[in-house]
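Entry for the shared binder. Reason: the reviewer on the internal report wants the predicted structure included alongside the sequence.
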Amino acid sequence: MSPWFEFPKNAYFGRVLPKNKIYAYAGASTKLKELFVRQVEQIVWKYKLAPETINIPATDAVSEIQVFGVALKTGELKHDVLRAMDKAIPFPIFYELSYGGKVKAIAAYKRPSESASEKWVTGSYFWTDWLLGDEPRQALPVALNLTALYEAMLRSLIPYAPRDGETLQAQVERAELIRTKVMDLARLEDSLRRERQFNRKVEINSRIRTIRKMIETLISG
C-alpha cells in the first residue's frame, strides 16, 4: 500500500507549527511537553483540504481536513503527542510521520461531540507500516463532499475491510474491538506458555479457542 496520498498543489499550506502553540491550545502538562521535545523534531501544517483548495463542498460534520507532517527524532512517537494535536486543532487531521527516509501515515476517527458542538471526540489511531518516502503515492479518493473524502481516507488506514453497508463509526468500533481481542489473545497465549498445571492449561486453551473464533467472526465480512 502507498504510504500516503498525492494531494493537489492548490491545497499546499506548508507552515511550520510551533510546539508552544500546541501546548497552549491542548493545555499540555510538563510531562507532555517533555515528550514533544524528546520525540518531535518539527511539525509542518502541510495541506488544508477545503472547498477553496480542492473544490469539494464542506458538510456540517467536516468543513476542512488537515494534513500534518511530523518529523521525528528517534522514530518513536507516543499517541499522547498526536492526541494533543488533535485536541488543539478542531478539524480531522491526518499525520505523515517521517524518520530516516521512511514515512508512516496515521490518523484517528475524529468527530464532533454530540453533547458539545465545539468539542471533538478522538478515537483510536490507525496507521500504515513504515515505508520508503519516495514510493509512488495513491490518488486522492474521488468524493462528492468532504465527509465522504474523510471517510475514504480513513478507511484506507483501517486494516479490516468494511462490511456491506457498514458505517465508518461501526467499522472503527469493530476494528477497535478486534485490537482489544488480539491483545487479550496474546496475554492468554503467554499465560499458557508459563502455566504448569494441566487443568489450568485446559481452561486457558478453551478461552484461547473462544477468542480466536470471536476474532475470526469480527474480521469476516
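Summary line for the report: The chain has seven helices and nine strands.
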